[in-house]
Design goal:
Elements (H helix, E strand, L loop, with lengths): L21 E6 L2 H9 L8 E4 L6 E4 L1 H4 L9 H7 L4 E3 L3 H18 L3 E5 L2 E5 L4 H4 L2 H16 L3 E6 L2 H11 L4 E3 L5 H5 L12 H9 L5 H5 L3 H8 L1 H11 L15 E12 L2 H21 L2 E12 L4 E12 L2 H13 L8 E13 L9 H6 L2 H18 L5 E2 L11 E4 L21 E7 L2 E8 L1
Parallel strand pairs: 2-4, 7-8, 13-16
Antiparallel strand pairs: 1-6, 1-7, 2-3, 5-6, 9-12, 10-11, 10-12, 14-15, 15-16
Helix pairs in contact: 4-6, 11-12, 13-14
Length: 455
């Protein structure tokens, strides 16, 4: 079931579908459901997706949730709450593949699809009604198609606005459909606690409670100026509109990513900042690769560090010039790491995020004086794009950013020193050439089985 606030009254809101064309589709326990589709023998058992010992819960089946396990919970706590659970390590490649396939199913219904996460999206089906029938029929078709193709279930909320459709999908979980007719929108909202409204976190909920507002009905019946005094002028007006079902935002296809990031939880807490820096290099490389694949550049680099006492520290730096080069992202993140006061505590988690994204084709690539003197940024970008090609063919593990490794046996390794790393490849040797980079490629008789690029 959804952990969100649920209606306190009846759920039979009628079946009038006039004026409702917004669907919110939410895959049920997505990561766990993908794993169960791959491992049918685990169905009916409590299953947790996440690291075996450390990190946090990525997803949990409803059987595990019955014991209080939920996403983002520390894995150690989840194991204590449900010791009989089966722990499955995450497979992000599999989740991405299923997500892309499920979104294709939605886009077969309408072009007006706004994907908001890996497992949820809004649809506006107003233009598809003549072809596919009323929204409730479209919702059932989506659920059938997703189940048939991927073996997972999804819940669908149907309403006249995005906000109410999202609430309805949460209340329909698991594996259900909830329609909220336009005429019943306000009645439906009045059954909810004020925490159900978008933008109401713990602090806002507490602020409203001090003014005696604990339900959506109490908020709607209050003077808007009272709500504004409690939470601020803009937020108060926004919450008042939501309480009356007013949400004019349309479904926006092709929603742009606002940031790209990656993070890692270490198997053991690390005192050695050199090891943390090595992981920062890998994360920066991942972020830059995703930037290039999306045709974006980033203006800001952010660093996230979590210490052994679960204290989370974040720092950010704005670059002189937007970039999609991993080396530049890494240098900024490394400088941020050097400035973090860890209080003598070891590091549990580190993350790198790139923000302030813009299309690479419109970005002004003006190098700083330091960049112009120190190195050829264009050659470095070309080198990293060559790495993208290798990874696209052989997988990400085939080539990785890192420091120069110790020498290996000459019979299994071909080493070549800095040269011009272009996008051309010698088919017989698998070699790339280029400046400001040295690449080590291990060539096997049957093909390339591993490589490290030192950028």
């Amino acid at each position: 079931m959804s952990r969100g606030p649920r209606p306190t009254g009846r759920r039979d809101w009628g079946d009038d579908e006039d004026g409702v064309s917004i669907l919110h589709v939410d895959m049920d326990a997505f990561y766990a459901s993908v794993e169960l589709a791959r491992r049918p023998h685990l169905r009916g058992k409590p299953v947790i997706v996440g690291g075996e010992q450390r990190g946090v819960v990525l997803a949990a089946t409803y059987e595990a949730r019955a014991y209080g396990v939920h996403s983002a919970m520390p894995m150690a706590m989840a194991r204590r709450m449900c010791p009989q659970a089966v722990i499955v390590p995450p497979d992000h490649a599999a989740y991405s593949a299923v997500s892309e396939g499920a979104m294709r199913v939605l886009r077969d219904v309408t072009t007006l699809v706004e994907q908001v996460s890996v497992d949820e999206a809004f649809l506006d089906v107003a233009g598809a009604r003549r072809r596919l029938g009323p929204p409730s029929h479209i919702a059932e078709q989506i659920r059938r198609d997703v189940r048939a193709e991927f073996g997972i279930t999804c819940s669908v909320g149907i309403a006249s606005t995005k906000f109410v459709a999202k609430l309805a999908s949460g209340h329909a979980k698991p594996d259900g459909v909830l329609l909220v007719p336009r005429a019943a929108t306000v009645e439906y909202l009045r059954t909810l606690p004020v925490g159900a409204l978008w933008g109401v976190g713990e602090a806002t909920e507490a602020a409203l409670a001090r003014w005696g507002v604990r339900t959506v009905a109490e908020l709607a019946d209050s003077d808007v100026r009272t709500i504004q005094r409690a939470v601020g002028k803009v937020a108060g007006a926004h919450l008042f509109d939501l309480a009356w079902g007013r949400d004019p935002r349309p479904v926006q296809p092709g929603r742009e990513e606002k940031s790209i990031g990656a993070e890692h939880t270490f198997d053991v807490d690390l005192h050695d900042l050199g090891q943390v820096e090595a992981k920062v290099l890998d994360l920066a490389d991942r972020c830059a690769g995703r930037l290039r694949s999306h045709g974006l550049v980033a203006r800001t680099v952010s660093l996230k560090v979590r210490t052994s006492d679960f204290r989370t520290l974040t720092r950010s730096r704005t670059l002189a010039t937007p970039t999609d080069v991993g080396r530049e992202v890494y240098l900024a993140a490394r400088a941020l790491l050097a400035g973090v006061d860890l209080g003598g505590l070891p590091v549990r988690l580190v993350g790198v995020r790139t923000e302030g994204l813009s299309p690479a084709v419109t970005a002004v690539q003006q190098p700083t004086l330091e960049e112009a003197v120190a190195e050829n940024t264009t050659a470095r970008r070309d080198a990293e794009r060559a790495m993208d090609l290798v990874r696209g063919r052989f997988g990400r593990s085939a080539i990785a950013a890192g420091s120069i490794p110790p020498p290996r046996a000459r019979d299994s390794t071909t080493d070549f020193v800095p040269g011009d790393l272009s996008l051309s490849k010698d088919v017989s040797t698998g070699e790339y050439g280029g400046s400001n980079a040295s690449v080590r490629v291990r060539a096997a008789r049957t093909g390339t089985d591993g490589a490290t690029a030192h950028i």
